[in-house]
Amino acid sequence: MVHLVVHRSARGMRFALSSLMLLAVSAGCAGAQSAGRSATPPPERTSSPGGLSSAAIDLATHSGTWPTTERTLMSAELRLVRACMEGKGFRYPAPDPPARAAPEDERAAVELADRSRTGYGISQPPSQAPGPGSAPVDRYYRPLPAARQKAFDRELNGPPDKKVTVSGTDWGEVRVATEGCDAESRSRLAGSPALWARITYLPERYDNELGRRVTSAPAYVRAMAEWRACMAGRKLPYRSPEQAQDALRKERQTADSADAFRRREIAVAVADGECALRAHLPAVSLRVQRELVSTLSRDEQRTLAELTAHREAALRRARTVL
Hints:
The protein has a 3-stranded antiparallel sheet, covered by helices on one side. Strand 2 (about 165-170) and strand 3 form a beta hairpin. By secondary structure, the chain is mainly alpha-helical. The protein is globular. Helix 2 crosses helix 7 (about 180-190), helix 4 runs antiparallel to helix 11 and helix 9 crosses helix 11 (about 260-280). It is built from 13 helices and 3 strands; from the N terminus they run E-H-H-H-H-H-H-E-E-H-H-H-H-H-H-H.
């Protein structure tokens, strides 16, 4: 996670009816941390002074090789789900996952072109946002008779009572389907649906945790000071991008002209992005975050190394599918 301290409104981030996000979350419950673990694979070759491999650091920070390898895993899972559903008499027309921008690409992280069109997304009309049911899978599913929809759901997700619990995520416990095409595909790649969930969601927790620590690191504090000086030079004396967005949301409530507010929002968002590039906030953030992986607890580092080894094994299987 490149921590820009910029939380922009979600635009175009809609998931299809099922495929990638079928995990039901129940927070605050005691968990079965060991659900779905298989035998621990041999230790991975170490390539960093802190004892963790570069692949483990990539996984914990969703950087380096992670965007490419994650797309490989998602593509293989989707291909397996398609084949499984076709074998059950259904189509599954979900598109292949798009390439992810490399976190090391500062301009891609800042998205200046997007900011120049929609700012932070605060004043974006709802009609411009993709509505529910716009994905190809949804368009295929909607016209099906009720009985076929029920059968589709059962073949894809399995029976509702066939689930196991995985804990240790940012949301508490996660209930993971153990039957159905989704579960079968994840088992083919990771060994079990629960292990797939652990490979996916536990590193995400580390990524979020490390991202929160970035803001107090001296290098990041210096970069933020440069960002503030840059913004002040444009007569935008905000202390942070969050403050800029919060202030704009308040302004919107009392704005006399929607067009005037939209122009101001875009101007602030573009200035924010340009100043982030000038201060190299994305690069500083990512460098600090990768360095902070060594501050994870011993147990967390052990779990991260284990999950990295399992993920590498899943990647090898994924490449045979594609």
